[in-house]
Structure formats: C-alpha cells, structure tokens
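WARN retry 2 of 3 for item q-0093 after timeout on previous attempt; input resubmitted unchanged.
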Amino acid sequence: MSKTGGDVGPRVTMTSIADWPDADVFLLVAFRCWLAGYETGDVACWELAWQGVSTTVPLADAKRIVAELAQFTRVFRKTLACRFVYLPYCCARVTADERLAVQVVACAQCGELPQAVELARKLCANDDHVDLVNAACDLGAVLKQAALSLTNTGNIGVPCDRSRSLH
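OK item q-0093 returned
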C-alpha cells in the first residue's frame, strides 16, 4: 500500500471494486500507475499505465487520455495538502481516498461541478483546488470522447475517515 503526504495516522477504509463499472476501474488503475511512477521514480509504472490505456482504446484516444491523466496527477499532487492512500494497480480493493479521487473526475465529467468542487476540497484538504477541478473536467472530457463514461458517482460517496490509525 502506498501513501503520499506526511500524515501517518489514519486507518484505511477499503472496499472491493468488483461491482464498479469498467470505465471507473480503468481510471482507477491508470491513476494508481501514474501515482506510483511519481512515488518510485520508475517510469515503468507510467509505461504500465500507457500499455493498459493503449490496449483498451484507440491510439488517438489513448494519447489524449494519458496526457490528461498526467496533468490531473501533477495537479493532484501539487494540490494535495494531506495524506492520500492508494493501493497497487493490480489490487481489487479500493481505499476511501481513491474512491473520492475517481468521484471528483466522475462528477466533473457529468457536469456536477459544485459536487466536484466539494469533493476536491475533501480529497485534498485544500481550499485552493480550482486547478484540480479543471484538470478533472479535462480528464473526464477525454474519457467521455473515448466512450468511457464514469458512472459510479452515486456509489462512491463514502468520505475519507482520516481519524483512525492504520494498525
């Protein structure tokens, strides 16, 4: 399990992604790979994301998706003012933090901007999250162009519980 940020106290709440739609799982796995690339400094993580995206959608769509995913991840890391817990790309479980990240993009894609703004604030613990919501809108748009409509907005709404310990 990987985390970003300096806080090491909260317990991780996890659920299964077994019932998630394919588009939501697609985004989650690619986002995990991109985050892991930053954390480890290993471009193989980014290559893994590219391979997954480029074998799922046409090449033109893959290029746009990976470009917007990279931008979303850069802005996310810059905006993040708290700990963010994510799992390895192959894990079938999902953390509450990951659920919120996918939900921000899903809400932005559906045009639910007030909800995307509120979720971005919760996710990043930062009131300066306008760029993150804009990046989520851009990522959501290219996913939609590739016929990847995020649909799990109603099922992901479990807020992060940042008050419990990991052990």
